[in-house]
């Protein structure tokens, strides 16, 4: 089974080797047929502490690294 890859914005890099990435998706409201933005925060492993707040990054699903971290940062998206 392939690993999921998501794209989002770094909202926090306070932890050591950890970044919090906000991923937004758009869903259509079933009644009003308007698009609504839903967002979720993911804790991702950043080995070199190389990303700062505001960076757009791609994250990939991986085995559990800690209590909250199940994602790893792949690269900075352009």
TrEMBL record:
TM segments? none
The answer to keyword Ribosomal protein applying to this record is yes
What the entry lists under InterPro entries is as follows: NA-bd_OB-fold (IPR012340), Ribosomal_uS17 (IPR000266), Ribosomal_uS17_bact/chlr (IPR019984), Ribosomal_uS17_CS (IPR019979)
SUPFAM superfamilies in the cross-refs: Nucleic acid-binding proteins
UniProt keyword terms in alphabetical order? Ribonucleoprotein, Ribosomal protein, RNA-binding, rRNA-binding
**Recorded superkingdom:** Bacteria
- Per the record, GO CC terms? ribosome
- How is the subunit organization of this protein annotated in UniProt? Part of the 30S ribosomal subunit.
PANTHER family, A to Z: 40S RIBOSOMAL PROTEIN S11 FAMILY MEMBER, SMALL RIBOSOMAL SUBUNIT PROTEIN US17M
Report the protein's function: One of the primary rRNA binding proteins, it binds specifically to the 5'-end of 16S ribosomal RNA.
In the record, the note on similarity to other proteins reads: Belongs to the universal ribosomal protein uS17 family.
- Protein name as it appears in the record: Small ribosomal subunit protein uS17
**Source species, please?**
Ferrovibrio xuzhouensis
Query: What broad taxonomic lineage does this protein's source fall under?
Result: Bacteria, Pseudomonadati, Pseudomonadota, Alphaproteobacteria, Rhodospirillales
């Amino acid at each position: 089974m392939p690993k999921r890859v998501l794209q989002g914005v770094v909202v926090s890099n306070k932890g050591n080797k950890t970044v919090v990435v906000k991923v937004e998706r758009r869903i259509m409201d079933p009644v009003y047929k308007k698009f609504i933005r839903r967002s979720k925060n993911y804790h991702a492993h950043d080995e070199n502490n190389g990303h700062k707040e505001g960076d757009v990054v791609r994250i990939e699903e991986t085995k559990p690294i800690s209590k909250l971290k199940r994602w790893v940062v792949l690269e900075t998206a352009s």
